[in-house]
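Hey forum,

I'm writing up a methods section and want to include a predicted complex as supplementary material. The small molecule is zinc ion. I've pasted the protein sequence and the SMILES. Can someone with a working setup run it? I'll credit the forum in the acknowledgements.
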Amino acid sequence: MIFKFKSWWRKRIVRRKSIDDALWQHCIQRLPLLRQFNDEEITRLRELATLFLYYKSIEATADLELTHEMRVVIAAQACIPILNLGIDWYAGWVSVIVYPQGFTPTRTQTDESGVVHEQLMSLGGEAWHRGPVILSWSDTAYAGEIDGHNLVIHEFAHKLDMRNGAANGFPPLHAHMSFEKWTKAFSQAYEDLLFKVEHNLPTPFNRYGASAPAEFFAVLSEVFFELPQMLETQYPAVFCQLCEFYRQHPRLIA
Ligand SMILES: [Zn+2]
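Reply by user p_vandermeer:
Happy to help. Structure tokens for the complex are below, copy them as they are.
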């Protein structure tokens, strides 16, 4: 009964709050990443983006004026990973905060001897466990390029990873998926990237992915949607696992 009501309510939101036709078409033109989807998928993506805009608060910091078009550009990209998962995968948090540029939060860390260190780190985005997603608009707007980098997909991949606790590169797998296969595929590929980074060897992947398993999952999720052929060639087992997890088989030709 509750499920039926939720489904009815969401259909009502999609009908009443639907993204304006002209704006949606403009968004599709602006985001070449969406070219991989057929008409039916684009329709569902638009419905998901509509629900995303309804359920999430997307706000800018004081030094940025956020237009509805910018909100739609964020929502459309954020919904790519959940196209075949559903909006409930983003349940449990509400806020997206947009900075004009990259930002530099101060991080405090306590080392083994109890000394507290302040660190300044320049970031393009962040995802907090049960908290907000933070995006820099300059990096979000740049996501129009097909180059294997996509800040929005990166941060929202972290959000999916966090559905079963702190981000660790191990999101909740679907019932039919194998824990062992996921672990084997990701740990072998992670070790490969780590080795290449440590020995300064060439790799087509963002070296930042070697900083932690959580970052590896987020970085490879970017590549999965932007340069799927490259991921399939380099790390085929990871590609298969991501196809099963996202329930998608990306086919974008860059
Ligand atoms: Zn990250």
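Some notes you might quote in the supplement: The first strand starts at residue 57 and ends at 60. The chain is about 50% helix and 10% strand.
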